[in-house]
Amino acid sequence: MRRRWRAPWWLSPLLVLAAWEAASVAGWLRRDYFPPPSALVGNYRALVGEEELLRHVGATLGRLGVAFVLAAVPGVLLGLGMGLVRPARLLLEPFVSGLYAIPKIALLPLIMLVMGIGEPALIVTASITAFFQITVSTMAGVLQVEPVLLEAARNYGATGHRLFFRVILPAVLPHIFTGLRLGLGLALILVIAVEITAAQTGLGFLIWHAWQVFRVEHMYCTFGVIGAIGLAITHGLEALGAVLMPWREAVWRPR
Description:
By secondary structure, the chain is mainly α. The protein has one domain: MetI-like fold (Orthogonal Bundle). The chain has eleven helices and no strands. Helix 3 crosses helix 9, helix 5 packs across helix 6 and helix 9 runs antiparallel to helix 10.
């Protein structure tokens, strides 16, 4: 049986970089606005050598980690509660659905008014979007558990915590991880946004400062670092999901 050839994940970014390099060298792109990727290598070295890039990466990752934990733990618990308890769902779903649609960066002035100007306000603003995404995904997962599956489990004596941990939770885990993956990406976006708006450190601040002094190379280097962080955290959560849900990997593995 012939195996299908699958392009490695890094092939398409490499082709884009090669096309960008060729277009910039040929003069089709303005080097002031679109410097060739080869010109960014030295800029990366300078930023790392000055420890400026590492300092801003550390600030962003610290905010991202705290914001994600603040969103994930209550988001999963609330989503499970709303999915399992119908009165709670009927009571809270209108508020969750209404607040979910509000751009969370718009809440930053209100949060800063309540919490003051500082790190707590930035982190809370970044965590809100992820919190609602995780809550909605978890609740949807609980509601999509097949009633036939629950009935069969009850017939075999699974009730209470045994029903939850052996039947409901394994069935909901894929939805939880989907919500966590999307929520982590949204948290990264909001962290960068609040850093651009109201921070003095972080990759978002570095982008804003590079724009102010017209250091286009710094901007592109920062874009690349943010993309690498997003790729790393996405693949990291997918790998963790594959470990915790081996049955899903076996079922959905492409042939």
